Amino acid sequence: MKARGVAPRRRLRAATVAVLAIMFVGAAVGFVGFLSQLHGTEIKPGGHADGIVVLTGGSSRVSDAVELLAGGYGKRLLISGVHPTSDAADISRSLPDSQSLMSCCVDLDHSAVNTRSNAAETRRWAHERGFRSLIVVTSNYHMPRAIVELSHAMPDITLIPFAVVGDKWRDEPWWTSGATFRLLLSEYVKYVAAEVRVHLADIGLDLMPEAGDVPGGSLVPRRSATAQANRSGY
Description:
The chain is α/β, with parallel strands linked by helices. The protein folds into two domains: about 1-35; about 50-230, Rossmann fold (3-Layer(aba) Sandwich), CATH 3.40.50. It has helices spanning about 1-35, 60-70, 90-95, 100-105, 115-130, 145-155, 165-170, 180-200, 225-230, and strands at about 50-55, 75-80, 105-110, 135-140, 160-165. The radius of gyration is 21 Å and the shape is elongated. Residues about 210-234 have low confidence and may be disordered.
């Protein structure tokens, strides 16, 4: 009797270990695939677009986006996720050479609080202006998730990624830094969650109408707006 009871428990334990092992291997393979999408150097867009959108937070995103605008890569720039108390003057003070562009060709979005709402506000902005193509500026580790959300929100618009690479990313391999590894692992989990949500929504199962996404960043006026947006080295 006792022997007969032990055998099923062993089989259940073995099956559980096997399932966990398969899940771990699958997650590891997925993480490697996620890392393969991340650019280690900044590459200028191959062509121009109607507009440019930058998602605030991370290393030099805003200044790089303004440089693209100055280079004629787009007609207008949307800075999405600006802190409600910041305005164009706050950003202009940190970019003195771009004040004329800030006054004529830059729009600020104060509504977005996360990547999903970045996508919603960008869609509204692009559709209001009749734009059919956008250059997307954000950090390299954030780009895969940003493209998932943006392409889902506006499948009718062509997206051209411009991945910003932070100084810390250039200076040291990610696997030598515990902080960078945690950042990448966290972003991978969010990326997978976004992919799952989008695929479910595509088949009519929008289980998370208000995604609890972590903000991509905001421009806080305690420091100059652009400096705050570029506060992270990654």
